[in-house]
Amino acid sequence: MRKLFVSEPGTIEMKEIELISKPGEGEIKIKVLMGGICGSDMSVYKGKIPYAEYPLTPGHEVIGEVIEAGANARFKVGDKVASYPNTYCGKCENCLRGMTNICVEKKSFGVTIDGLFAEEIIIDSEFAVGVPADIDEKKAVLMEPLSVCVHAIGKADLKNSQKIAVMGCGTEGMLCIAILSYLGMDITAIDINEDKLAIAKEFDKGITTLVPGQADGRNFDVVIEAAGAKKAIEQAFEIVKPGGKMITLGLTNEDISYPCFKVVRSEITIQGSIIYTKDDFDKALEYLKDEDFNIKPIISEVVPFEEFRTAYDHALSGKMVKVLMDFK
């Protein structure tokens, strides 16, 4: 069986290992069918996540078919499932409040524990989500990143008349645009990459697209910051309206200048958003099941698993939105 292995930042290889053992009582063995390379996978590869634990197997966005199931597993052989790649304890204060996304015992596949870019994996069935057999695999593998955006947009308390800015047109930014376009919102996409802005237009020709300098002096009811870059975050403070809301979805290790005077005097609401809960997965699946929900602009290319170096190189190029790996 083959799996990917990151021994240290900048070093990734494919290893042939012995077939993994049988699943435990509550576990499932999954034959991986499709995987998506995420921004965090690239950050782990580049050594930009300080809490990443090396060596490890990368990857967390996968779908597959259950090929073995423990006696108490939540799924049976033949079921199609997607990964729910952030664990939770179910017992801490946050979990008991329904906020499993900020569980104090949370572990993340492909970052703090071994990930899922392997031909076969064994996971606790609690951390898998069922996928209807008739959903295309290239759609289904987007459940996890789409859930991130469902969670973030759910915190915005959107109104139909509002003007929404999405800063950053990577995977998360584009998936936010996909949802907002589906909901019929007034959207402005902001990015330094004009090729990405052109892709954003594919969701709806009515979307306004701007490079950052063109956004100066404009104001928006809601700003979704998905770039995770110092300049973008600081600009988000400047373009949110008085009484507006800023959803911070992107991550950076850089120190950010906090405009206290403006935030207080203008009553700006700053809302952090991290990953998702199972409810967000349910909503993401609803979107993906609807033929009118457009995700075609998201998928840049599908690369065979054995060509993982090409897949990573293309994902790292900054020219792609989402690169998928086909494990079949």
Please write out the topology:
Blueprint: E1 2-8, E2 11-16, E3 27-36, H1 39-46, E4 61-69, E5 80-83, H2 93-96, E6 120-124, E7 128-130, H3 137-140, H4 143-154, E8 163-167, H5 171-182, E9 186-190, H6 194-200, E10 208-210, H7 212-215, E11 220-225, H8 230-239, E12 240-248, H9 260-265, E13 269-272, H10 278-289, E14 299-304, H11 308-316, E15 322-326
Parallel strand pairs: 8-9, 8-11, 9-10, 11-12, 12-13, 14-15
Antiparallel strand pairs: 1-2, 3-4, 3-6, 3-15, 4-5, 5-7
Helix pairs in contact: 4-5, 4-10
Cofactor: Zn(2+)
Protein name: L-iditol 2-dehydrogenase
Domain Enoyl reductase (ER): 10-325
Features:
328 residues, alpha/beta, Quinone Oxidoreductase, Chain A, domain 1, Rossmann fold, 2 domains, seven-stranded mixed beta sheet, six-stranded parallel beta sheet, 27% strand, zinc ion binding, zinc, ADH-like_C, metal-binding
Please characterize this protein's 3D structure.
The protein is of the alpha/beta class. It folds into 2 domains: 170 residues, Quinone Oxidoreductase, Chain A, domain 1, CATH 3.90.180.10; 126 residues, 3-Layer(aba) Sandwich (Rossmann fold). Helices cover 27% and strands 27% of the residues. It contains 11 helices and 15 strands. The strands form 3 sheets. Strands 3, 4, 5, 6, 7, 14 and 15 form a 7-stranded mixed β-sheet that branches. β1 and β2 form a beta hairpin. α4 packs across α10. The longest helix is centred in the middle third of the chain and has 12 residues. Pfam families: ADH_N, ADH_zinc_N. GO terms for molecular function: oxidoreductase activity; zinc ion binding. InterPro entries: ADH-like_C, ADH-like_N, ADH_Zn_CS, ER, GroES-like_sf, NAD(P)-bd_dom_sf, Zn_alcohol_dh.
